[in-house]
């Protein structure tokens, strides 16, 4: 490669996204004191650009504007320019996204915001084209207009930025309103179900026309709603909505049928043409939700999807030290000689390419049938490409096919006169061949940043899959990742989590010079992961660490006046607002998961103040939960768990004994949203016995492994039959 003509301060950063911009002609600064001081000293406005390394439109704006010498000169002359990786600094992203959404009615990335030298926002948007068009003002024009305003109307701008900040502070506040009790669970659950039911797509599943996101939070809510209403028509509909959505997603183009895993979202109603980036947080949550679908339905189809996701993550998103990488990009070079990246190039196929790769005649099928015919029929391949031009504005997918299972295996088998088992073997042969062909293409960029929060979600995915599918290998992989977090993303001296670490040279694991401290979401998702990992592995060390982190979370983030947790800790003068997220999106909001974590923590520790805290979070969000619960489905689920009280399922027995293992298999195979599992192994010096003295009073009956169902540490009669235990686990 030629020597770069420009190098800016981002060259010293670890974030793959910041490093992508290190050779722009823009004099970028990372978020920090050096940039803030320069803005104040030179009395310059700040231009803040926030994105992430696998964001398609971030790449477009870089190519069109930030790599352009002339636009770079305008930016450098009039502004102090700061680049932020939103995955590294969700705190900075959230403050300014709150502003952009409030002032423009929309949001997204890249986010472009103009700030006064004291960091107050006064103008903002998302992607800007470089030059003026019929419907949009160009980036160059916006830069020059804002620079002119600062010169001519500085006082008015400062005044306006102050009043904007006050308004944001007021509208974004979430606190308990007078009443100090959680909202009524039945009404909140029913309203959320009705709101989801109304937005449900009966044909293709999902909860909007387009774009369509997987939103595991909705599916988890529906499973819990079904579990609590399983004998009613509403309960049956909730289950049908969730399972149908999961099936349609797995058949769709949002699911990578050759390379496994799921893309971020579908641009159309049919789950067909995705934005092709793959995010770790989606894989973790979807592995867990497909595991639950398997527990509930017993349908191997869902177990196969779990295995597919975990194969992708193990192969493509795993660091050799045990952590998980953040994401794979949507864009890549179509061939090794291409000069320009295209979205989806790694994943899409031309019909003639498939015919050339799959020419073999198929014995026993209708005469003249080739492997290519069978595969192309099953996956909806068309000679001229199967992508609607309306979903391909830049013509990047013209003549290409995004694979989507158009027929059931039975239909395809019947069409070609084949047995079902034979068809399955043929499709597998095709997939292996295409996988080898795809391996010859240039791979998309891999974001090798490792985040505590997303690693937590992925550990939960592996642990829950290991428990539900009885696959010990998945539990071991979860434990390896948890050990990685303990080594690389936990500061033993302070007892605090760190946000991120990075793959360095020679595959080492590196940390920033000044490590980023963990945010609320890091604590919440890691604590959840450690509880899931304990239930799957019965290693009490994970429980002990989870309870330590819960105490630390309380200390750093709890709001004693308004209740619930702030997303960030106090004391950072560069953060203008301390916010509480109020919407479950692609990931659940941290306070939603914190409610269930607190209830689980109380069950494992006997520390009942945590139950009280969980109730206070629900009280703080009460108004929103009653009016628009569809925005917080995970917190609605937690409301039901809070109301029904968690069942402590205690198995007394030798963890290595066959009778204990059989009981554990039974507990893990049943979907029960309001249970925690623990094993009383008779070791009175162990961590659990020290936390929960009542365990010492529980005994094995007739020398056999014995189960007790306890609520608030009061236990049922002992049970030694697996059938009886299964019946008792139903909500």
TrEMBL record:
Transmembrane segments: none
GO biological process, one term: carbohydrate metabolic process
Listed InterPro entries: 6-hairpin_glycosidase_sf, 6hp_glycosidase-like_sf, Ssp411, Ssp411-like_TRX, Thioredoxin-like_sf
Gene3D superfamilies (UniProt xref): 1.50.10.10, Glutaredoxin
Residue intervals of the Spermatogenesis-associated protein 20-like TRX domain: 7-168
PANTHER family: SPERMATOGENESIS-ASSOCIATED PROTEIN 20
Record's protein name: SPT20 protein
Protein's organism: Callaeas wilsoni
